[in-house]
Amino acid sequence: MEVKELKSKGLKREFSITIRIDDLKEKKIKKIQDIASKAKIDGFRPGKVPTAHIEKLYGQSVMVEVIEEKVSEASQSVLKDRDLRAAVKPDVKLNSDMNDVIEKNKDLVFTMNCEVLPEIKITDFSKIKLDKPVSKPKEKDIKDALEYLAKQNKSFKETSEKTKSKDGDQVTIDYVGKIDDLAFDGGTANDANLVLGSKSFIDNFEDQLVGLKKGDKKLVKVKFPDNYQSSDLAGKKATFDVEIKKVSKAEESKVNDNLAKSLGMEDLKTLKKNLEERIQQDFDSAARMKLKDSLLDALEKKHNFELPESMVNQEFDQMWNQLQQQLDQQKKDLKDLELSEKEIRKNYTEISEKRVCTGLLIAEIGKQNNIKLEDNDINKALQMEMQKYPGQEKEILDYYQKNQDAIGQLTAPVFEEKVIDFILEKVELKDVKVSREDLFETGVKKASKSEKKKKSKVISGNKSKTKAK
Q: Cβ distance 222 to 236 under 8 Å?
């Protein structure tokens, strides 16, 4: 193999690579012999098919396969020999005519373009000083949580027979659902409780029950959504014969032992203790996020390196596609947003740069300090993912076992947290008490302090511009 470096500018590299025809032929012969030893062809005993016959049948396709493998092997070898790591998959362009290589026995020549990862000199973590936010729930936090639970756990009291239903009331109903005058499976129920305005039922079902009283009957007409979970019903029009059994008014639950018992707790004291623990967990999680953000900002300021343009572009394209999908779902265009397309692109470019910078730092710190994921880390990530899809655990597990790239994406956050923990053990931390408001203040709220950032928050959250490029 002959290699010529055509370009070396910044992180961009270009190589001209020549693979000798003899090397290609040698690998082709081995493949032909392997096929001949296993082939089952009429007129020949298994394993006794002449290589000349295999050559006649499959020679050209085998050579194409050999070329693809050799190009991949050569590309990896060129980078490895020069201690380079590709930022993204190298771009390969064949300079040779395939027919000339296959039929005229000419050498294979191709050009490889790629961006390589930058060299990063990691800073001394002990020189980084950070404030570690600390916050504990106050009596008001627990009181607010109790009041919220009381509002969310309303009780309902039956009204008089003449009381007409309105939004927020609970109606107890019998109903029979039909499509083309035929009842369908799962469309019938007796003594079903439905809170009007809760959007629990499809289409405008609940709206048609407003203004009815006990004993009233109503023919409700609806249409199932096109994306309804049951394909037999999706997009179809249906009617429901509904009878109002009773109308009940909502009554807010009182903060007492009865509320606690309705939530599975022994008494109000136990409920308060449980809430305090859960709120503290929320506080600790928010404090961790703020500390992590501060650490990443500090790391970004401490390092200065060129970012691979290809990685930034990939990140940008992913974000832009997500925005387009969101707009399509909302039936909106870019012009409907507060920022101009130019401003949005600038904003997204800055976010992309920041993400790439952070990702490269995390990866390099992990590499230099031999931080790796253990089997337990991977299994934990898989378990958490499977819990999101009850009943489909086997399918989810099979998918990730067969897709290493998917496993990498799934476990990337776990690896990042291990690296963050490693760094936090070495930086200088100072506990600083903060209020609940400060603890949960987001990048979006901070952005409102200036008009420019106020506009930016419409598109995304925190957007600190990277200085790594």
A: no
